[in-house]
Structure formats: structure tokens, C-alpha cells
Amino acid sequence: MKILLINFTDAGGGAAMAALRLVISLNEHGFYARLGVQEKQSANPYVITLPKKKHCLAFKIARKVKSVTGEVFARITKRLPHPFAFRTTNGIFHTTNFHSETDVNWINNSDFDIVNLHWISGVICNKDIAKIKKPIVWTMHDSWPCCGAEHHPNVLEKDIRWRKGYFRKNKPKTTKGIDLCRKVWKQKKKYLGNKNILFTAPSNWEHDVLKSSALFGHCECKVIPNIIDHSVFYPKDKLAVKKLFSIPDDKIILGFGAAYDIDNPKSMKGSYYLLEALSKLKNPEKYFLVIFGPAGESFTSKVSIQFFASGYISNPNILACLYSACDCVINPSLIENLPTTCLESICCGVPVVAFDVGGTSDIVVHKQTGYLATPYKAEELTEGVEWCIENQAGLSKNCIEKSVRDFDEEKAISAYLDLFSKLVMPLVKE
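The structure corresponding to this sequence follows.
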């Protein structure tokens, strides 16, 4: 059995890390698997760059003309806003994925038995997915497959179109201009509505989102958590790590992991709520914040306690060390699937304080492996931090036990292989 995983890239985000860990684990278990990407960033031998479509000269010229005229139009509309342009107050990430460059014929003519889609925006469009002749498993790293253009249900504005369908009459008043979400949803329904796709969801919440969706509620979906490398993410010597990174050993160390967009006050990563929670800490001089990722001055200038920003970290071993230096990790995200930050944190024995949103509760069990705050009450994040520090020893033990019990690599691989085998067996019989 040969498996082709497809993701935009092999580094830089939660989906990329999950797909890379899965392809490595499949090969370590004796299976032939490759991760096909549009942008290869690692030197991993299991990662390949997907072949691009071959276009005729006329197509290339037309695309160039369209690109130039598009740039001119964009400059004009920037100065004179287009009345029909898509506008929304929903801060959740949006993509259309109307076009792609991946050569579907190469996929169909290859000797891969299974195609496992991951984050596919910009890699392979809906129309091309419909052309794939091999069995498809789609791993949902967010809710984009069953929503419109948005990557998660618009819970912040109580938009339930992903459940009912995207129609003119139920467009939110906060959406102006062309209803891009409806346009994307209609395209998915046209090309994929009758396509036989089997889904996997890393969290129970994401499973429920798909099963209650108008688009793919009829499809089979199995909950399989993302694979975590326990040989990397485990508790390290706190004092040694603090000394290595010049982190104070006489303060309570808080962690905040976000790779992007934390300078935006409406960021889905919840930086606004983090700043508010930190400002409410009693005796703030006792605390020190470690930021996993880049942080601009517009964010750091508002941090009310001492801090250290690591910048982007590509090495998981360094990341695991930084987790181990922390006494508590804060994840104030406004919506999540199965948050990688929370999972990596508990594997390192560090409790997590987070809003009770999405699939976070699959990892953070209230007052057992951390603290779940009511969305979106910053004061409860503060209470959670103080409670976790007071109960740290017991929480750390619980975190490690849960990470081993519920996020075991062997169980996850076994579940994937059972799924793949179910799809391959009918082909073998034929």
C-alpha cells in the first residue's frame, strides 16, 4: 500500500507539522508514504514537490495579462473602494482555492493507492480534487472543507450557514459586497458534493462540525488525533533550560505560542486577551513571559511583565526545551481544532490555560491538565494561571499521563492504517 499525503508545505504551521510527522511515522512502520507539497522547506527524503500542470503558450500569456490588469485594478480599488468587493468583520482566515497548479494527471497515473489531503489551499483546487480517481482521505486541520471561504465556522458572529447552506437570505448583515463564502461553498457542492471522500478529524469538535454540516454531514468521519513525537516532546531539566536561554530562575515562567498575527488586535490567536489577562496578574513582578515566535513592537510594547521573544523556531527540540522552561502555557485562541501548542505543552508536563473553544477540551481537561476559561473572559485566564501555579505538581503528572494515554503514536497510526486498508481492499478484489 502506497500513500500520497498532500499539504501546502512541510514546515511552518500546525498542518504542516502534523502531515510531516504522519508521513515519517508511516515510513517508520514499513509503509511507502510521501508528502507532496507545493513549497518544500525541509530536506526530508519523504517529502516531494508536486509536479505542476503543463500549460500552452496562449494560456501563459492570458494569465500574465490577467495578472497585470488585476494589479492595476487592485491599485484603483485601493484608492476608490469597490462597492461589490467582499468585506466581512469575521476575523477568521478566508481562502477561495479556485485555482491550483498541481498536475492531477500525475496523481492519477502514479502508483499511489491512497491520496490523503491535508491543508490544500493553493495546492489543489476543488475542481481538480473531483478529478482524482484514487480513494481520498481528507484530514481536517480546520473546518474549511465544509464551510465557505472561512476556515472555521463563524461562531463570533453566530453565522450557522455551514449547517444550513449558504444562501442569499441567510447572509450575515456583517458581510458586505459579493458573498465570497457562498460562492466558494457552491463550488464545493458542485464538484465535491457527490464525491466519495472519507474524512478524519483530529478533535471530537471538528468531527461534530463536519457531521452537522450541510455539505459533508453524510460522509464518514473518524477521529484520529495528530501524531506527536514523544521522543522530542517530553519534560526537560527546567533549570538547565533556563540557564541555556538566559530565562530567570527566580520567576514564574509563562509561555505563549503563536507563529503569526499576534500584533493584530483581532487576531484569532487571542493576543488581545493575553495582554488583558497579564495586566490583571497579582504581583506581576513575579512573572516572566516566553513568546514562542516572532513578536513586533506593537505587541511587545503592551506586555505588562518581563518577556523573551524567541522568534520563529523550526527545530522541535529547541521548542520542547522552551516548553519545559515554562510553569504554565497560555493559549487564548478564539477558535481552535486540536491546538498543537496545547498538545506539545502537556507532553512536556506543562499545564495549559485556554478558552474552552473548539477541540481544546480534548487536551485541556479543566483542573486536571490545566484550566478552561469561559470564552472570552480575560479575567478567567488570569484566574486559571494563578490556579495552575498553585497546583502545578499534580497537574504536571496529569499532563504526562494524558499525553501518553490519549495521544499515542501507535494508536494513531493503527487507526490511519485501518482506514487506508478499508479503502484499498475493494480495489484489490477488483
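The first helix runs from residue 14 to 28.
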